[in-house]
Amino acid sequence: MNLKLKIWRQRDPNTRGKFVNYKLNDISPESSFLEMIDVLNEELITKNEEPIVFDDDCREGICGACGMYINGRPHGPDSLITVCQLHMRKFKDGDTIVIEPWRARAFPVIRDLMVDRSAFDTLIQEAGFVSVNTGSAPDANSIPVAKKYADLSMDAASCIGCGACVAACKNASAMLFVGAKVSHLTLLPQGNVEAEDRVLKMVAKMDELGFGNCTNTGACEAECPKGITLTNIARLNREYYKATV
Amino acid sequence: MAKLQSRTPDGPLADKWSSYKSNQNLVNPANKRKLDVIVVGTGLAGASAAASLAEMGFKVKSFCYQDSPRRAHSIAAQGGINAAKNYQNDGDSIYRLFFDTIKGGDYRSREANVYRLAEVSNQIIDQCVAQGVPFAREYGGTLDNRSFGGALVSRTFYARGQTGQQLLLGAYQSLSRQIKKGNVEMYPRMEMYNLVVVDGIARGIIGRDVITGKLERFSAHAVVLASGGYGNVFFLSTMAMGANASAAWQCYKKGALFGNPCYVQIHPTCIPVHGDAQSKLTLMSESLRNDGRIWVPKNKEDAVKVQKGEMRGKDIPEEDRDYYLERRYPAFGNLVPRDVASRAAKERCDAGHGVNSSGLAVFLDFQDAIQRLGRDVIEAKYGNLFQMYEKITDDNPYELPMMIYPAIHYSMGGIWVDYELQTTIPGLFATGESNFSDHGANRLGASALMQGLADGYFVLPYTIQNFLAGEINTPRFNTDSPEFEAAETEVNDQLEKLMAVKGNHSVDTLHKRLGKIMWDHVGMARNDEGLKNAQEEIRDLKEEFWNNVKIPGELNDLNPELQKASRLADYLELGELMAIDALNRTESCGGHFREEYQTGEGEALRNDKDFTYVAAWEYAGDDKDPKLHKEVLDFKFIEVKQRNYK
């Protein structure tokens, strides 16, 4: 496949970025999207130019490190997928592909396609855990958990923290991310103990970190690579309401 | 160096750990606040150790090269975690888990360590459930289990095909809680480049800030390595792109012995290689072998047709299929250990029965299971794995059998540690995949998660106190000392040297060449001539690397190519040590298969008389042969036998 690429290049958070055009030939449709960028980077290195900087690690769609806007969609044109699992067979020979970083106030650009998502870590540090010390746990089967709730909890816990929900949202809201963590823990008896404290703290922190509000557009759900649903935002709202009355 | 001391406690096997804990030195709460511990890596071993030490009251500094501790590669573990709970009432016990692990490791691990691992396995499950890990459950609300290779019981706990993710999030959340409390200082995007040794004791590290390129010094009373394995020496592996051996390798060069470097695990069920641009390989969980059946066409003519795309797997009638694992190993069938399954796949493909365009793949077929259990059940069990397979290959595994092939997955070898997980450098500890200890020559499925969390939650936080108890009068360290200065200068010189090469080959081009040498000669099948050639080829490649590598960008700046080059410099040395170790071990055991040493049926043939030892290598200086130390493995409690999975 022969491709035209328009890629966002930005030196650092304080320098103005711009789109740079590249031509890339003979890409195998069996390659992944990031392998396509690897090939481009090899060409840039040969020409003594600096390669395009982006975050990635596991390349199996689970670590959540990779993420970029491709033709106006987080993680590209396929659904339920991260960039590293997107394959070039989803594009056509001769296509022009536009590649941009996540854009959100809470995720400043570091360089090119690499952004700072440490705000997500700060949110978890605020209250996204169960307060249990090592060694103090009772036998694992001592508290039965209905399969239904264990499964719903697992659905929410599948979040990989990639930030696509924030990037997709016109308000750059982190409601789906926070909703997923609140749901994951609150649906289980072990996490339910601290439900009120958790939801109040996480929502307050989310506002403080510069994430926007939720206007129920649903772009986050549509773009989430792990299929986290809006139900989790509804549950977050309900838990928040319960905690404030 | 003195003889290697494993410092295994005396007494009956089942009492060793409890007697150790009863008699070890502890640190009182007021003194814990005065003691600093560095933990390198935030995977299962690192995050759990950092969180547990901080909960106890120590001051912890935690490091990872990723942008967040949650991204460590433990997150990609799919299938599950073993524990001897016997919730399924199928006869499991601590002894049986211990026995299966020793046998699975082909009798090349330390009895006392493995027993302790089995002993604390149950506590791990309790701990994870309390943290809110959403393990799979039965309708009655109790925990569900499944089977993994090398075991006749169902002892594997799982959270769909994302068990590693869920366990890591549990540890990460506990770590996050301690960060918020101020007990852990977290340094993401900070990569360890050197170990600082003061008066013979590990007292700090030199880190490089990935974003600014600046070198920074960190001091502590002890250093814990939890930096994972070295599978990426092969370039193509199931490891994360950034996973590297450099932290461990720098410790080796500072005097920590490296144990059994030739023991690497080749996982039988990975998605086959598609082409030259391939950057990594994707695992399909071993849990799939619970319901999937592995086969190749019985007739070579059919295999050739499949390779050419003229025939599909599902068109081959039942009587023309060779379910070779079920044929060769009727007792364990598709659930033989990984080394056995991988070699059997290679044997069939080498004999011309492979099934993808390259001839290097076998079928993993779910048709029987779908007919028996229904598509819904299979989807509930393995849905995310099937989806992953389809996204990567564009084939629907509900309709067509999967095609799989072995790939590098795990390193059983690593930094040598004693019973306390302390290395040969006092104050330096190694945990999880970074140490050599519990898996012998082959790791069983679902045991990596168990070992990482055993070390991090329940072993290291105890054993490190035996060392720290002697440090309560040692004040915090200033990083202005000559030792820190020298360690930083050493790193700076090395990085400047790399930047100054300004050659013609990119890092990846050279890394791919190293990978090919390793796969061809130090991979699934090894022999005397190949291993000697490998050493020579690696030395030539090393010279070429230092004369001809091309790194764009600046030294003191975000520079991914420099990061990769620095890691490759270490892999080139490690690769050679792996070949040296594999050449020295003139026997076959577990993942180490020497073609000269096999039974008539093609199984690994051990030489217990000469090789029942851990090969621990001491760095002797650049361009000097490393020195071999032997820790003889003394099996007091079990009988060493030829492994039999028939």
Q: How would you briefly describe this protein structure?
A:
Chain A is of the alpha+beta class. Chain A has helices at residues 33-46, 118-127, 147-157, 164-168, 175-186, 189-192, 195-208, 219-223, 231-244, and strands spanning 3-9, 18-24, 69-70, 73-74, 96-100, 109-111, 114-115. In chain A, helix 2 (118-127) runs antiparallel to helix 7, helix 3 (147-157) runs antiparallel to helix 5 (175-186) and helix 7 (195-208) crosses helix 9.
Helical content class of chain A: 25-40%
CATH class of the largest domain in chain A: Mainly Alpha
- Give a short account of the largest sheet of chain B: 5 strands, parallel
Shape of chain A: elongated
How does the overall form of chain B come out from the CA principal axes? globular
**Number of helical regions of chain A:** 9
Radius of gyration of chain B: 24 Å
End-to-end Cα distance of chain B? 44 Å
The CATH class of the domain at 267-408 in chain B is identified as Alpha Beta
Going by CATH, the homologous superfamily of the domain at 267-408 in chain B would be Succinate dehydrogenase/fumarate reductase flavoprotein, catalytic domain
Question: CATH topology of the domain at 267-408 in chain B, which one?
Answer: Flavocytochrome C3, Chain A, domain 1
Instruction: Please tell me the overall pLDDT of chain B.
Output: 96
- Count the E strands of chain A: 7
Radius of gyration of chain A: 20 Å
CATH architecture field of the largest domain in chain A: Orthogonal Bundle
Order of strands in the sheet with the most strands of chain A?
A: 2-1-5-3-4
- Look at the structure and name the CATH superfamily of the largest domain in chain A: Alpha-helical ferredoxin
Report the β-strand fraction of chain A as a percent range. 5-15%
Helical percentage of chain B: 25-40%
CATH topology of the largest domain in chain A: Fumarate Reductase Iron-sulfur Protein, Chain B, domain 2
The structure class of chain A reads alpha+beta
